[in-house]
């Protein structure tokens, strides 16, 4: 008798490496978090430094600091130029909060205990379909942010940094020129809308979000010289979306919510749309079948939505279905090269 496992190819060292890398994944993340908290990358800067000097400036013990720096070099964040002497790599430089294009806030947020603790209960969420965060913290993620303003500010900064690539690509990938006023629903600190308004000087805009979501938006608009072309409106998109725009844009909003909640948000956008108006959804669009070559971290993001906020990433068919239920028809799905895995999903009022 032949058992299925008898005919499977034997595991190679590379296969063993895959499992080992996954098993050590959370340790790699905590190595990065420790480096951020000790400001290692900022201390080294553009020069080479010996481990003992980094330790002295960070207020750390020399021998353990040397071990941390070696681990960072093993992860590609630093390079050991000579024994005990380290320099920052281009990837590591992204952890310097003072550099343009920094991902330090993003890395801080996604190694934050508030994000990680619910992941320890992923199996429970898979069994039940319930959001583990709510069980662990006794409230939902966004209410938790309201109760912790410092964490909310970190989250806003992380979302701003996570939007940089898309903001650089979106204005050139899809046409905004046929619209007059864009409303960024759940637009946070205004990073994405600012990029669009800079590219299209005839457009005006509105960032619509909660009070917590908009906390850093005035500074973003001031920095971009856009205060006179963009207004900030506080509200709750589960209750209503203001009218007065002919394009309603949402980036990384719908994936936070269940299908029923998404239909509510889209229905409010639909109610505000003038004739000829459009809704533009900027999110990953999952293929019908997983392609390991292009999957990236999208499916981990999908599980993050499950454990932390109760949302999900969606396929084109799933976007079409929630739009249909909200009285909208998807008219185009445009990939955003350079901001993979994001797409621009455009929808019009259903005939």
From TrEMBL:
InterPro entries, alphabetized: COMT-like (IPR016461), COMT_C (IPR001077), COMT_dimerisation (IPR012967), SAM-dependent_MTases_sf (IPR029063), WH-like_DNA-bd_sf (IPR036388), WH_DNA-bd_sf (IPR036390)
PROSITE patterns (UniProt xref): SAM_OMT_II
Sorted UniProt keywords: Methyltransferase, S-adenosyl-L-methionine, Transferase
All residue ranges annotated as the O-methyltransferase dimerisation domain in the record: 21-95
Residue ranges constituting the O-methyltransferase C-terminal domain according to the UniProt record: 119-328
A Pfam family reported for this protein in Swiss-Prot or TrEMBL: Methyltransf_2
Domain of life: Bacteria
Record-given protein name: Hydroxyneurosporene-O-methyltransferase
Organism of provenance: Streptomyces lasiicapitis
């Amino acid at each position: 008798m032949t058992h299925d496992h008898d005919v499977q190819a034997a595991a190679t060292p590379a296969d063993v490496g895959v499992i080992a890398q996954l098993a050590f994944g959370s340790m790699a993340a905590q190595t990065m978090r420790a480096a951020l908290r000790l400001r290692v990358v900022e201390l080294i800067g553009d020069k080479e430094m010996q481990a003992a000097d980094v330790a002295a400036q960070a207020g750390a013990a020399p021998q353990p600091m040397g071990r941390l720096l070696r681990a960072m070099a093993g992860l590609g964040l630093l390079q050991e130029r000579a024994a005990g002497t380290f320099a920052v790599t281009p990837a590591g430089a992204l952890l310097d909060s003072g550099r343009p294009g920094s991902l330090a806030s993003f890395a801080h947020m996604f190694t934050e205990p508030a994000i990680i603790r619910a992941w320890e209960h992923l199996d429970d969420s898979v069994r039940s379909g319930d959001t583990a965060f709510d069980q662990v913290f006794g409230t939902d993620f966004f209410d938790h942010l309201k109760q912790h303003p410092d964490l909310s500010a970190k989250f806003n900064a992380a979302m701003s940094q996570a939007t940089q690539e898309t903001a650089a690509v979106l204005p050139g990938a899809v046409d905004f020129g046929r619209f007059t006023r864009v409303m960024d629903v759940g637009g946070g600190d205004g990073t994405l809308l600012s990029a669009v308004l800079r590219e299209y000087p005839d457009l005006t805009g509105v960032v619509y979000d909660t009070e917590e979501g908009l906390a850093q938006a005035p500074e973003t608009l001031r920095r971009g010289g856009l205060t006179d072309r963009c207004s900030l409106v506080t509200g709750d998109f589960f209750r209503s979306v203001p009218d007065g725009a002919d394009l309603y844009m949402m980036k990384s909003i719908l994936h936070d919510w269940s299908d029923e909640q998404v239909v509510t948000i889209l229905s409010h956008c639909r109610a505000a749309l003038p004739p000829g108006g459009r809704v533009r959804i900027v999110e990953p669009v999952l293929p019908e079948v997983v392609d390991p070559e292009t999957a990236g971290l999208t499916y981990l993001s999908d599980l993050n939505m499950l454990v932390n906020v109760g949302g999900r990433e969606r396929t084109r068919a799933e976007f079409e279905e929630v739009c249909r239920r909200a009285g909208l028809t998807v008219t185009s799905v445009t990939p955003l090269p350079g901001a993979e895995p994001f797409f621009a999903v455009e929808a019009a009022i259903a005939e």
